[in-house]
Design goal:
The chain is α/β, with parallel strands linked by helices and about 950 residues long. The protein has 28 helices and 39 strands. It has an eight-stranded mixed β-sheet with strand order 1-2-3-4-5-6-8-7, sandwiched between helices. Strand 11 and strand 12 form a beta hairpin. Helix 11 runs parallel beside helix 12 (about 430-440), helix 14 crosses helix 20 and helix 27 packs across helix 28. The radius of gyration is 33 Å and the shape is flat.
Amino acid sequence: MQPSPEQSPHHAYPDHWEADVVLRDGGTARIRPITTDDADRLVSFYEQVSDESKYYRFFAPYPRLSAKDVHRFTHHDYVDRVGLAVTVGGEFIATVRYDRINAQGRPASAPADEAEVAFLVQDAHQGRGVASALLEHIAAVARERGIRRFAAEVLPANNKMIKVFRDAGYTQQRSFEDGSVHLTLDLEPTAESLAVQRAREQRAEARSVQRLLAPGSVAVIGAGRTPGGVGRTVLRNLLGAGFTGRTYAVNRAFAADQATIDGVPAHRSLGEIGERVDLAVVAVPADRVPEAVADCGEHGVQGLVVLSAGYAEWGAEGRERQRELVRQARSYGMRIIGPNAFGIINNSEAVRLNASLAPERPASGRIGLFTQSGAIGIALLSGLYRRGAGLSTFISAGNRADISGNDFLQYWYEDPDTDVALLYLESLGNPRKFTRLARRTAAVKPVVVVKGARHSGSTPPGHAVPVSRIPDATVSALMRQAGVIRVDTVTEMVDAGLLLADQPLPAGGRIAILGNSESLGLLTYDACLAEGLRPRPPVDLTTAATPQDFRDALSAALADDGCDAVVVTAIPWVGENGEAESGDGEVLATALHAAAATGPAKPVAVVHVEIGGLAEALAAATSTVAQQRPATASPALGVPGPAAAAPRRPGTGRTTTGRPAPTPDKAAGDAAPAPDAPRPVGRIPAYPAAERAVRALAEAVRYAQWRRQAAVPGKVPEFLDDTIDEAAAGTLIDTLLGQAPDPRGRPLEHDEARELLACYGITVRPTLPAPGPEEAAAAAARLGYPVALKTTAPHLRHRADLGGVRLDLDGEAALRRAYGELTDLLGKPAELRPVVQSMAPRGVDTVVRATIDPAAGAVLSFGLAGAPSELLGDTAHRLVPATDRDAAELIRSIRAAPVLFGWRGSAPVDTAALEELLLRVSRLVDDHPEVVSIALEPVVVATQGLTVLGASVRLSPPPARTDLGPRRLSNY
């Protein structure tokens, strides 16, 4: 909404304050500044507020607003007087206002930094978290306008408002004066206020997803009059799944006397139904969707699944149609899955929802699956079905214009029915938030991700996402830092998901291998080594081994304290007549389950070669023991164990008996079971190739290790505070950027960069320009021999292999000779820009960088200097702020790390000094977002200490940090 011409011209309407938010009950609302055009809305809103709420607001009976009141509450300068409104369906449901005041409590202007604040929420919307969301936004507005404190007067009986202030997490003071409670809130965000904000965000967004997945009633809008078509297919699938709620078919083309279709009530509009519908599945042409959305909004529908195509995947016109769809739905408080979605499935027995185009509801299980592609969703459902895996929930979000993978991470975080989250993502709409949510979720249950469209410029049509400059390798590293299991293919995702859903986490990487094929055992052994595991020599049971031999061997391996996991390899038995014996697969499955049921809690995976009659035997075992599972080969070893034993659900710690899950902190520290713990009974995942089984197991090992480390988070050493002058750095940055900084930023000169880095205890060895041999000799005399002569031309910088660097020049004669050789070989001094620098102690040349990516945030990077590392992409990355553990892992995670630790008899270098440097760089970019890039190259790390020989720094006006602001939904 834009202001009228009467609005103060020198303070433009702040449209960046507009935001869609999710409220506590999962519905949405819009927060925006109040304008002069809102007089009628304000009066209508006030008339719907109870006398009691009016009394709490004005401390006296106040039945109606006067014309003067209306003018005062709708005319703001957006600096000293600001009003925000919360709207649903275009009408006000709450307002908040602040007025800047001086120390005497009278109206004031800057530099006064205190404001009086007051809220009013319609009684019908109290308890939805409206005031809490408003407080977050009005506080952010106030900070932007230079206000640091809020003052509020609240009647003692107004417990709800007092609680809003008390629970916000801000530093506050309270006193009782003249019959009212006087509250003062310091608006500087605190760790507690940020934690409160994110906890509210999690509850609200999880609730918005739950409303979609567990509706009490569903209407299919666009169910055709004849069989076939998208709408009729969804209606059939709803009925086929046995949905426990009420189902309706809606189509304006139905005849007036048509009462039912496929046995469910048929209506021409939602208004004819006569009761509220919770979820609407929209399957009409795109040009008719706005009409359907309006019908839903006006009749209280809580959420939409839009299957209709013709949106952003169709180009610019479709993108605008998609934006309008989101705006329209949110204006009514509804959230959307889609458009161009495949649908949603909830396998809970209390719901049994299949509001999708999938003809069969998959078996119930412990895996939650989110995909942005309908085609990939179909393939994943089919693959999981074939392998006997079950799902808790399935979502195919299409263009994910509103609800995304982030929302489902919020939901799965505390969903007792989901132990493993699988996500196929083609884009990340909010990478910072995704990383934060994934880290928190991964602390209690595995998160497995396949990222499609990994290369720059290949964002799928229909996905509006922030531009990111970081390569996919960096994205992968940041995901792993957050505990995400990043795999390359959907097959690997299913492989890992099956193991993580059905088996306990391993305590380490020591792998026992046993089976009846020496060759298959050796292949498994090699695969373990390739994945960085520690396999024990394979135990060959020989081809004559019986199922009882397998059982005994598996029992012994599980009982061995030197083993963390077991891979069983199996080939078919061959009888005396040369034919595979029947029934062996079923017997083998039973034997392995018997061993697993009595052994300690360690993961077991099976590798089987599908030749002879093994596949049929495995299928027979499945059909006889677990009738509800498909009769295929792989799931034979996935048959449930004895019903008396409740299978463990990794991550939540719940069992199917319904025992409560541990708290997140406790769960995070419970990554590995005790070696002698009773064996949880579950399905044993089977794989057709050793490499696939071992890769899945390796991912589980790495994830379990991350869980153990995440239980005790790293920290930033306190000693850094004594050698860092944050205030001096801030002053210098302000000076360098100037009063009107160039939005493109500016690179710092060498001396400017040295001065800024020195504020954070980072010393850069000085260089002196040498435009001629005489200047070079003078510079060397000033610095002291030995010296280095280097070119700084962009095309030769850091390229010693091109001859642009001369080292260990121990005298003037050597320096002049080198200067002549350099200019004769590479060009004139004006082109080469030579410099002289004193020699540093010998060591390993490394590179430390930090960059600000607009989508992912600040990223700290480390690698060895030189072309080989650059060509091989051997660089490690961590998100800022980095902890001591992040710094230690950063230098150890590159493939060339052995060079730093005494490779081939060389002396180990001072990695402690290198870790400290990384922490200082991290702290600098975290404290000062204006520092958008730093490159220290080379950093020579010696056996004692290090030397920074080159530094480049770029400053720019700080990019917006939406992840630290008040809660808001993404705008697509």
